[in-house]
Write a structure and sequence with these properties.
619 residues; mainly alpha; 24 helices; 6 strands; 3% strand
Length: 619
């Protein structure tokens, strides 16, 4: 019990103390934050090793009393301060610790350039509240920690210009609005069950009230995770925020928390009917396809990564929408995998930005030799997110495909559409690979621009987290079926058998053998000896000055008949729920302002109209 309380209170308390440390001592604040992440990381390992437990705060105060106005606060607090360290919660807090440590280590150097006021205090408060949200069993306590995370999300973006300030405001409003809807869902649960314990709730979605409650909680989960249609804050945040903030929140922490809550509501708190299953699967494939199509045409590489952060959520939703043990395990596995390679990709983007100061793919190229650690780590992350074997992204996506095929044996409407879910999921993976060919090719391959002749690799503290995350991507892919899934995810989802002839270690061995044979053939047949000639362009020797523009190839997609209209409307914010809501509010306020004409008879009419409406409601 003391470990659970410590991982929450220690980061929050020290985070508050760091507000009083001057900003000129930023490095010292960073070291303190790093030490806190190490201590809490150790405590999470202890919690993970101790097994599932349900704790109440009054366990610490057994036999003690604190009477205030006739109420025993220590005894009554136990009703709300309930913590559930089950298999799912212990898994999430373990990886929260990992990402927090690596990103803090990276930030010690990176944040010197991209200064965010009080970055480390807000980082620690985010860490403590994230732990609190995961281990909370009481929905009100969960809501408290969940709400604070919306504020720290707002504060961890660098509001130095109009665009970043507008993005921070947009993120806060969307998260805040979804939290308001979440409160409505919790209130309905209290009305139906009289309980706020996540463990004690299991509602069948057979009536309108329980369905509304599920949809309200789903809205909060989707917005935090960045799923369609509440995703529009993620690409903007990824573009404007420091890379370390993007790696910490939209890439890892918000994904872990949003999908964690989705796992809670879909596997235990509610029993879904076939229409809600159809809704989840539809939202999953729409998130995959729409976001990856937007990523294909991006020139800003941070915004491109933001859209992929949305696209990958779709695979997780698919897994939980299936409702089977392999589906739940695949959704959780992909959640962790996504946090690994997506955090790595954002940190890699930060390395490129740190050395070049550029954010547009068109302005870059040829950095592979200058930044070898960043390049190879980025390449592994890109292949992982694209589902290339034997990396971890392939393993979790393959499990989702297997789950969809098994799901097709059912008789429901969603079951009969299994080919649609499978086809769109595979298509999304192929388009992901296409967009990362653009990213890797545009940034690291081709000819290096003259202005980048002096560019060198980032400091060791910045590339070490990349290497560690890349090693996790390899390890989780190679040993997925033999170790990772059985040890980490089956305790949460339940045991199941993999179908078909697939073993991750055997596949990895085949890939390794293929690479070795390729190298041997290359050396034996002396294939490195081949003739090269310069291009003939009007008799001019300009080959050394020219380079193929990687992004130009993808313009064909924008110019395609159907897609051109959709992309044009997307640029006009037709599909942005935040912008549409803002326009509606402005229109409504304009209509109401028109009613204030300053004429007394008009106001009298409005008063009587209001009275009539109130009487009709009361009757």
């Amino acid at each position: 019990m003391i470990e659970v309380i410590s991982i929450i209170t220690l980061p929050v308390f020290l985070g508050l103390l760091l507000f009083f440390v001057p900003e000129k001592l930023r490095t010292i604040k960073g070291v303190i934050a790093l030490l806190v992440s190490i201590i809490t990381g150790y405590l999470t390992i202890v919690i993970y090793s101790s097994g599932s437990q349900l704790h109440h705060i009054n366990e610490l105060s057994a036999g003690s009393t604190l009477i205030v106005f006739g109420f025993d606060l220590l005894h009554d607090a136990g009703k709300y301060m309930a913590f559930n360290c089950d298999n799912l919660g212990r898994l999430i807090i373990l990886f929260i610790s990992l990402f927090s440590f690596l990103i803090l280590l990276y930030s010690l150097i990176y944040i010197r350039e991209r200064r965010v006021r009080n970055y480390y205090p807000y980082f620690l408060i985010t860490l403590g509240c994230a732990y609190g949200a995961v281990v909370s069993d009481n929905l009100l306590l969960f809501l408290l920690f969940w709400g604070v995370l919306g504020i720290t999300l707002y504060k961890l973006i660098q509001g130095t210009d109009e665009e970043s300030s507008a993005t921070a405001k947009k993120s806060l409003i969307l998260i805040g609005a979804s939290d308001s809807i979440l409160i409505i869902g919790i209130a309905i649960i209290w009305k139906i069950t009289g309980s706020l314990s996540m463990v004690g709730i299991s509602l069948p979605t057979t009536n309108a009230l329980s369905v509304v409650s599920f949809l309200a909680l789903l809205t909060g989960s989707f917005t935090k995770a960045g799923a369609f249609p509440f995703h529009t804050w993620v690409p903007d945040y990824a573009k404007c925020a420091p890379a370390s903030s993007s790696a910490y929140l939209p890439a890892s922490l918000d994904k872990l928390l949003g999908i964690y809550f989705l796992a809670r509501i879909t596997t235990s708190m509610f029993i879904l009917n076939e229409w809600l299953t159809l809704l989840l699967l539809s939202a999953g494939v729409i998130s995959i396809i729409t976001a990856v199509m937007m990523a294909l045409v991006q020139h800003n590489y941070k915004r491109l990564l933001g859209f992929h952060a949305v696209s990958q959520v779709g695979y997780m939703i698919l897994g939980f929408g299936l409702g089977s043990m392999i589906g739940v395990a695949a959704g959780l596995f992909h959640m962790i995998n996504n946090a690994l390679y997506k955090s790595g990709l954002f940190l890699s983007a930060g390395c490129v930005e740190y050395r070049t100061g550029k954010e547009d793919i068109d302005d870059l190229g040829g950095l592979s030799k200058a930044m070898p650690f960043t390049f190879f780590a980025s390449l592994i992350f890109a292949m992982s997110i694209s589902g290339v074997p034997p990396f971890n992204g392939f393993a979790s996506k393959w499990m989702i495909y297997q789950g969809i095929i098994d799901f097709g044996s059912g008789t429901g409407i969603a079951n009969k559409l299994w080919v649609v879910w499978l086809g769109l999921a595979v298509l999304g993976s192929a388009l992901t690979l296409a967009s990362f060919i653009k990213l890797i090719g545009g940034i690291f391959l081709g000819r290096r621009r003259p202005e980048f002749a002096e560019v060198r690799e980032v400091p060791v503290i910045m590339w070490i987290p990349l290497v560690i995350l890349a090693m996790f991507c390899i390890f989780f892919g190679v040993f997925s079926t033999n170790f990772i899934v059985p040890k980490l995810f089956m305790p949460v989802s339940g045991a199941f058998q993999f179908k078909g002839f697939w073993n991750s270690s055997f596949v990895s061995l085949l890939v390794l053998i293929s690479i070795i044979l390729g190298i041997i053939l290359y050396l034996v047949f002396n294939l490195k000896k081949f003739r090269t000639e310069d291009s003939f362009i009007g008799g001019e020797k300009i080959q050394e000055q020219t380079s193929y523009a990687t992004t130009e190839f993808f313009k064909t997609i924008v110019e395609f008949r159907v897609f051109s209209w959709i992309y044009r409307k997307a640029e006009e914010r037709w599909f942005d729920i935040y912008d549409l809501s803002k326009q509606f509010v402005l229109w409504l306020s304009h209509q109401l302002s028109e009613a204030h004409a300053g004429v007394l008879p008009g106001y009298v009419i409005w008063v009587f109209a209001g009275l009539i409406v109130m009487l009709l409601i009361m009757i």
